[in-house]
Design goal:
Elements (H helix, E strand, L loop, with lengths): L2 E6 L5 H11 L4 E4 L2 H9 L7 H24 L3 E5 L2 H10 L3 H10 L8 E6 L2 H11 L8 H18 L3 E5 L4 H12 L16 E5 L6 H10 L2 H8 L4 E5 L1 H16 L7 E4 L2 E4 L4 H16 L10 E6 L6 H7 L3 H4 L2 E7 L2 H11 L15 H8 L4 H4 L4 E6 L2 E9 L7 H20 L4
Parallel strand pairs: 1-3, 1-4, 2-3, 4-5, 6-10, 6-11, 7-10, 11-13
Antiparallel strand pairs: 8-9, 12-13
Helix pairs in contact: 2-3, 3-5, 4-5, 4-7
Length: about 425
């Protein structure tokens, strides 16, 4: 992610959270304060009685904010912004502020769309108590206004189709901040951690339920210094094409309810099976676009790693997928293929399934029909006949290691040894001179 907007009730802790992130991740993170509050404070505008004047000044400031966001994105920094125009529109409706409601259509697309809206959530009663405690009456919002604002904001997000994640902010600060860091892909780097020789792009490939997501979970829980030294992995972010595919399944559900027919999938075993094989190159293209946006600058992954996780089936599935990536992505890639048999893949697939979390990375399931049709024939051995080596894709030599992941284990010592042996070999190939 490159651009995330924080929202939440007054006194939820947005400013304080962003200030901490800016302090501890000063090399990577840049914070933009709430534009409305910035304008109100600088121009000494009464937030409630001078709504028309506030709208006029705010409209004049939006182009400057756009330039600030675009400049940070161009530098490859993580841009975190407090609040957004959708929140101000919701307050305008709650306060019957026609000046901004009428003007909104002229600026609704003026700012870049964020990768994520991150909502910090606390009970309204707690927001009211914290507002009283902080002693800033000029910015205090009463209960009825907050309730109306939240209703309008929910409608705005639905209309926008926003990607929004909610975090419970009414709990231990350490637990809360840890979850914020995880969602943003931030991991504090101590001065003693050597991140100079870690992987840039690591493709995690393998059949469904082969252990790719469990590998990521292991690395997330591994202390940074140990992870860098033993596994050659820096603070990392993750791109997985399953959420994109799941969105297509849910779009099909909607088309079906509208009587238009499904486009990409059919229902199978209380789940979904792909019927349009064009979805696979589409997913590859979507991943490639996401990665390309992250590595737009040569030093974008300096002292950072990026995991790209996906599965492909069929005799030429992986060959076609790799050919779908751009050279600028492939040139920075190493591949770890997590190898299990189709029988083991199916066994683990059944075990991990949670019907109430069908869209979860660690809890989704591939139906039997899809497993047999798509993943029964795995083309990886055809293009990678040796346990390790390089693959020539578009004239680029991409290092790979095939890591056996049977028998299954949850023992950290067993997994640590397995992962270290594979990643040491892969890192040697990745570090060697190549085209």
């Amino acid at each position: 992610m490159r651009y995330v907007v924080f929202e939440g009730l007054p006194a939820v802790g947005k400013s304080e959270t962003l200030a901490l992130l800016a302090r501890f991740y000063s090399e990577r993170v840049r914070v933009l304060p709430e534009l409305v509050k910035e304008v109100v404070t600088r121009e000494k505008i009464d937030l409630f009685s001078e709504r028309k004047r506030l709208t006029e000044v705010l409209l004049a400031e939006i182009p400057r904010r756009k330039e600030e966001v675009e400049a940070l994105l161009a530098k490859g920094q993580l841009c975190l912004e407090e609040s957004h125009l959708g929140v101000h529109l919701a307050y305008a409706h709650a306060l019957n502020d026609r000046s901004f409601i009428d003007a909104y259509h002229t600026v609704k697309d003026a700012l870049p769309a964020p990768d994520l809206y991150l909502r910090l959530e606390i009970p309204i009663d707690l927001s009211l108590a914290r507002q009283r405690a902080r002693g800033t009456a000029a910015f205090d919002i009463d209960l009825s206004t907050l309730e109306r604002m939240l209703a309008h904001l929910q409608g705005w997000h639905i209309t926008q189709g926003s990607r929004i994640t909610t975090i419970d902010a009414d709990r231990s600060p350490s637990i809360f901040l840890t979850e914020v860091e995880r969602l943003l892909g931030l991991s504090y780097t101590a001065g003693s951690a050597n991140l100079a020789d870690t992987f840039d792009l690591l493709f995690l490939l393998g059949r469904p339920a082969s252990g790719k997501s469990e590998f990521i979970d292991f690395m997330e829980k591994c202390p940074l210094e140990r992870r860098a030294e033993h596994y050659h992995i820096a603070p990392f972010s993750i791109i997985d094409d399953f959420p994109i595919l799941w969105d297509k399944f849910e779009e099909d559900d909607l088309w079906e309810r509208l009587g238009r027919g499904r486009l990409y999938s059919k229902r199978a075993d209380e789940n979904y099976a792909v019927v349009d094989q064009g979805i696979w190159p589409f997913l590859t293209g979507m991943i490639d676009q996401q990665v390309a946006r992250i590595i737009v600058r040569p030093d974008a992954l300096s002292q950072r790693s990026l995991f790209v996780e996906f599965s492909r089936g069929g005799e030429s599935g992986y060959q076609n997928a790799l050919n779908g990536f751009s050279k600028k992505v492939l040139s920075r890639t190493a591949i770890l293929y997590v190898d299990v048999s189709v029988e083991e893949s199916w066994r683990r697939n059944l075990i991990r399934y949670d019907e109430n979390k069908r869209d979860g990375i660690l809890t989704h399931s591939v139906p039997r029909e899809e497993m047999k049709m798509t993943y029964g024939n795995d083309g990886w051995p055809k293009i990678a006949s040796s346990p390790q080596g390089t693959l020539n894709v578009k004239g680029i030599e991409i290092p790979y290691v095939t890591m056996g992941n049977e028998p299954e284990s949850t023992d950290p010592d067993v997994l640590g040894s397995r992962y270290k042996a594979a990643l040491d070999r892969l890192h040697s190939l990745w570090s060697a001179p190549r085209n």
